[in-house]
């Protein structure tokens, strides 16, 4: 259902972009800017990329706005943040795996040794 709605919107964009370079005319405006994050998600997904590629004018528009230097810097920054998050998650997982080490602790020398779980 939502894909069909998106297809309808993109069809309107396809028609509009047949008459102008950008959504609101021949200048890059906020109307184009606000589409960058969502279109980036669509373009990067293997499953839905065809929604943009199958519309010649939409694909031209997307290629134009997504190749802007400012957007390319944002994409690089997002990738860096994503990579750092993955690394932090991996390190946290390793810490958790090493954290529950069983050590022998003698509570009372006259009694048996008991096992106590400690975080190292």
UniProtKB/TrEMBL annotation:
Keywords: Transferase
Membrane spanning stretches: none
Record field: catalytic activity: RX + glutathione = an S-substituted glutathione + a halide anion + H(+)
Pfam families: GST_C
InterPro entries from the UniProt entry: Glutathione-S-Trfase_C-like, Glutathione-S-Trfase_C_sf, GST_C
Alphabetized GO MF terms: glutathione binding; glutathione transferase activity
Domain of life: Eukaryota
Domain (GST C-terminal) ranges: 1-89
Record GO cellular component, one term: cytoplasm
Enzyme class: transferase
Gene Ontology BP terms: glutathione metabolic process
E.C. code: 2.5.1.18
Name listed for the protein in its UniProt record: glutathione transferase
Lineage of the organism: Eukaryota, Viridiplantae, Streptophyta, Embryophyta, Tracheophyta
């Amino acid at each position: 259902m939502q894909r069909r709605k998106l297809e309808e919107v993109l069809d309107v964009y396809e028609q509009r972009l047949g008459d102008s370079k950008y959504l609101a005319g021949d200048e890059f405006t906020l109307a184009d800017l606000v589409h960058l994050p969502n279109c980036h998600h669509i373009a990067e997904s293997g499953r839905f990329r065809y929604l943009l590629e199958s519309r010649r004018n939409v694909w031209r528009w997307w290629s134009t706005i997504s190749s802007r230097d400012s957007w390319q810097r944002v994409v690089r920054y997002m990738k860096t943040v994503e990579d750092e998050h993955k690394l932090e998650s991996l390190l946290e997982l390793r810490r958790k795996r090493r954290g529950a080490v069983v050590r022998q602790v003698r509570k009372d020398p006259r009694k048996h040794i008991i096992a106590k779980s400690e975080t190292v």
